[in-house]
Fold this protein.
Amino acid sequence: MKILVTVKEVAAVDDEFEIDGLAIDDRYVTADLNEWDEYAVEAAVQIQEAHDDVEVVTVTVGPSETDETIRQALAKGADRAIRVWDDALDDAGLLDPETKAEVLAAVAAEEDPDLVLTGVQSADDGFGATGVTLADKLDMEWGAVVNDLDLDPEAGVASVHRELEGGVEELTDIEIPAVLTIQTGINDPRYASLRGIRQAQSKELAEYGLTDIGLDASEIESPLEQTSLYEPETEGEATVFEGSPEETATELAELLAEKGVTN
Amino acid sequence: MSVLAIAEHRRGELRPVSLEQLAAGRDLADKLDCELHTAVIGGDVEAFGAKLNREGVDTVHTVDIGEEFNHDVYTQVVTQLTTELDPTVLLMPNSVNGLDYAPAVANRLDRPLVTDVVDIDAENGLTATRELYGSKAETTIDVHADQAAVTIRPAEWPTIETEGDAAIEAFDASIDESAVKSTVKGFEEVGGGDIDITDADVLVSVGRGIEEEENLDIIHDLAEALDATVSGSRPLIDNGWLAKDRQVGQSGKVVTPDVYIAIGISGAVQHVAGMKGSDTIVAINTDPNAPIFDIADYGIQDDLFEVVPALIEQFQ
Ligand SMILES: Cc1cc2nc3c(=O)[nH]c(=O)nc-3n(C[C@H](O)[C@H](O)[C@H](O)COP(=O)(O)OP(=O)(O)OC[C@H]3O[C@@H](n4cnc5c(N)ncnc54)[C@H](O)[C@@H]3O)c2cc1C
């Protein structure tokens, strides 16, 4: 069995930052593996440990600078990684879910996985739509926002919980092959061991351009254009207590007492 | 030209976003000078249809198929309905279920999809406003297409309450059963704890800023000093540091205490969805730009590890 996991490097922005044109100035940005993808990787590795002959392959749409981040998935147990990038993708501007799914689908068509796991969303752009778009492009079944997964490869069924709003979960059986978008909390992602980190360095990380996966640069045209980036105006009217921690705590204590909060 | 909004319901209740979409949809339809249609799929479509008949809605389409949401069925029905009505903009909720069918529909119809929009305009072509980096930045997106699909963020638009005089029409969808490859078996309520945080008058709510499980001690101490109940944001529950039913937010509980003290919580939209109705909101956070300060009434922009012990002292 083969599991393909989509992983992405995301940008975390400092508390204070400056915007430079349509992006946040690099100085205020740190790179990290997308939180939701960490749980997807862990879910794949757990399936690998529970069954015989399971290969876990990660796939990324992103530039070479992301290699270090995506090696984290290799260090946690993925067998090999694929990364797709070239000038056409660099020039495409805003990579919307459809464009990303187009690239991922071309890789998936090559790899022919039994299961594809993606994060529910990425922490930076938060579209939350790449996984389901990918499923539809691959003509696979899918499930979004999965926080519990019980896979029965013989029966060809993934029994999942989908986390709905308000503390309610939907219990659903999904025929595989399928794409599942993984929600945080489904498992407890492991830390990479030192041995894992060392081994990751020698695992395969294949780099492809669009033509390598049978796509034409002209197919990579995002219909969405980001035209501005700005700090949202705060609608907030919070009274901010100023001073040392002792002073602010005193003010807050007075306020709480006023509101009738006492011990 | 028209705007079509797809309603959402669960366990016999129309979800509020269904009516919020009508406000977003009417506004958009006015700008495009066109009709607003809405549709409801499955469940008691007659009752739902009557509820969706609000001011500004031209037609309500009812699709009497199934009881609860199934994404294979929804994808087929919404695709057929959209093909038939050919709306300029197809609106769907950016809910968990919305995200389980909207991308598939957009893909089938070859329409660009913009998700989780907080504002939308059609004055000069379709433009949408979205948030990035956990609400730290906002962006405008131009949609270069004649027709698009959009999912709207719940609780961003008002609900339309006035009854309307829409035509109610039944839509016959034909379902390819062989393409229905998922079966919804039922629902389960999340439990795990012994306390109902929705009953609490005062909540001391803790987020990822607490860093380590051991550090939770000061939060419990504070709660004890204030005779309050401890709740938390999702990462704490994901880590198993607090029981599942202590989670506040979209997928957790909706709470409305007299006082909500958010400690080391950024104020992600999914968290805010669960606590914005609190009477008085206090935020303690080192990041002055944290979105939690947008909805807080009082704030301390400082290190929780200094402020919380000082606060405990005040009550001892
Ligand atoms: C479908 C879906 C459903 C979700 N449902 C929920 C939900 O129900 N509830 C929920 O909470 N989340 C939910 N989330 C997750 C949500 O998007 C956020 O990831 C989460 O709320 C972040 O939690 P946080 O604010 O504790 O952590 P972070 O966003 O990491 O914020 C930590 C904050 O602590 C501050 N901080 C750090 N150190 C200190 C210090 N020493 N002193 C003071 N402040 C400090 C930081 O400045 C930061 O603002 C959901 C997400 C998805 C996709």
The CA atoms of residues 163 and 169 of chain A lie 5 Å apart.
